[in-house]
Amino acid sequence: MSEEIYTVIVADDEPEICEAVCQMVDWEQLGFRLVGSAGNGVDALQMVEQLQPDLLLTDIEMPFISGTELSRQVREVQPLIQVAFLSGYDDFEYVQSAIENQVIAYLLKPLSMAELTEELRGIHRKMQSRFQELRPVPSHMSRHIATATLLLDAFPSNQSEQSIRNRLYDCGMVFTEPYLLAVISIGAADFRQSAAQTVEKVIQKYYSCSAVVSGERILCLVVSEDGFSRLGVALDELYCVGKRLLSFAFNIGVSRSFTDLTQCHAACREAVDAQTLASESGIYHYEQLQENADRLSSDHIQRIEQMLLNEDDAELRNWLQSALRAPHSDFASMNLLFAAQEVVARYLGERDTALLLRRSQLENPFGTGASREEMDRRVAEFCLAGMERIRERKEKGIGFLCERALDIIERCYMDPELSLATVSSRLHVSPNYLSANIKKYAGETFINLVIKRRMEAAAQLLRDKTMKITEVSERCGYNDQHYFSYCFKKYYGVSPSVMRRGGETE
User: Fold this and answer.
1) What does DSSP say about strands 82-87 and 55-59: parallel, antiparallel, or unpaired?
2) Where are the domains of the chain?
3) How many CB atoms lie under 10 A from the CB of residue 256?
4) SS3 letters across 147-194
5) Can you say whether the dihedral through the CA atoms of 418, 422, 428, 432 is positive or negative?
6) Which residues fall within 8 angstroms of residue 120, CB to CB, at 6 or more apart?
7) Comparing 140 with 85, which gets the higher pLDDT?
8) Following CA atoms 349, 354, 359, 365 in sequence, which dihedral angle do they give, to the nearest 10 degrees?
9) How far apart are CA 471 and CA 484, in angstroms?
């Protein structure tokens, strides 16, 4: 038996073929463990999100979601998953799609069991090779001294930018005008220095980069010629590599992008700050903290942010007392309130911030007739409550994130474009991270939560017998009535028309 065991899901809409592959292949002898099978793309996608397999063996032509689209979507929830196509088509279009989707194998039907067995042996060898390439090996990182200097110290005043670029070139970083830079800070409870090598290998699949170790962090300088649209995918894969291959609980912080090497040190501080706000294992972008930060003085904001993140109640009380009692105009408490509101909203969102304002009687602070002392008391109460909620968010950040995702599902379930990718984009997190955490938080996968909400709405709408089933389908987020009927029957045990006639669910 092979040393490494990989889990696998088989997807094929021809029941005889699917059953034959599942039952007749000696999976264990080949180094695999079969964990599920599906007869269409929808079921396969749900199963991948639920079971997180290492390999998906799928047909290309399937109902509802094709194998090629399935290949793209499963990587959103499982970046390390390997996909093999099992197809009866030898057309160039399909082969090209396989190449674009980076499938590990393209198997042509019909195959004998002996041929399929040999192909699976080859797939197992490829998977072992790919995973082995990502495992860290002892290495000397001194060649990255130029990167370390830029990130940990500052731009050397006696060297030109071109000379620094030349030194970074020796680290494997290639600069072609115009370019953008970013810094990533990666932390873990326990990692070896050689893990920096793995970080480089993953990121270099997408961008030129150089990684160095600093204390309990790995710092990575990344360069791109066309923006960082793929950075989320790269970080998703890095997170999964840490979890799957290194047993590290990575947390990752990302700086804003910049264009000048003189800004590397400042960007490094941004990345480290963002990393401290990532939960136990997650990804946080500094830009998330900056979405609403332009309206007030940066010095004012930074000071209040520092106090609110300090998590020391006594120190915050003393600072507020000093700030509010110093010589000031009648509007000083208002200025402090607006700055604190700006900071709290960045971390908690507008809805929770509004709730804290109401509790502190500050929802409409003007024209209340409150004395300056009373207003100062309310502002201090708001700041202390904000610090407590931010602390809770840092401790239970997954809950806040998932509550927002559930709220989006509740409000937007009728949108056909609603997906794990669109919701994660709105929440500034990766699809894989949202998928994993919403499953832990809600006890169900994202896809199943969306289907559940749509099915509840459909059952309600079907009571109106004047509404056509096609209209019910569209109002529940399904453009394809057959797809809607399939999901409905799978969920309730009866078709929409049977339920409308009063048929009981199973």
Assistant:
1) parallel
2) 6-134, 142-290, 298-395, 408-500
3) 18
4) HHHHHHHCCCCCCCHHHHHHHHHCCCCCCCCCCEEEEEEEECCCCCCC
5) positive
6) 25, 30, 32
7) 85
8) 130
9) 11
Question: Which two tokens mark 335?
Answer: 């200025």
Does this chain's domain 6-134 share its CATH topology with 142-290? no
**Is pLDDT of 413 > 90?**
yes
Torsions phi, psi for 361 (to 5 deg): 60, 40
Contact 267, 256 (CB under 8 A): yes
DSSP 296: S
CATH code for the structural domain at 142-290: 3.30.70.120
Q: Which two tokens stand for residue 151?
A: 């990130």
Q: Of 402, 500, 406, 401, which is closest to residue 453 (Cα–Cα)?
A: 406
Mean pLDDT of the 258-280 span: 79
Mean pLDDT of 433-442: 84
Q: What is the pLDDT of residues 151-206, one digit of tens each?
A: 887 655 566 777 777 777 777 777 777 888 899 888 875 665 667 888 888 898 88
Give the right CATH number for 408-500 from 3.40.50.970, 1.10.10.60, 1.10.3720.10, 3.40.640.10: 1.10.10.60
What percentage of the chain has pLDDT greater than the value 70?
Answer: 82
Distance CA 59, CA 38 (A): 10
Helix (H, G, I), strand (E, B) or coil at 65: coil
CATH architecture of 6-134: 3-Layer(aba) Sandwich (3.40)
pLDDT reading at 453 higher than 90: yes
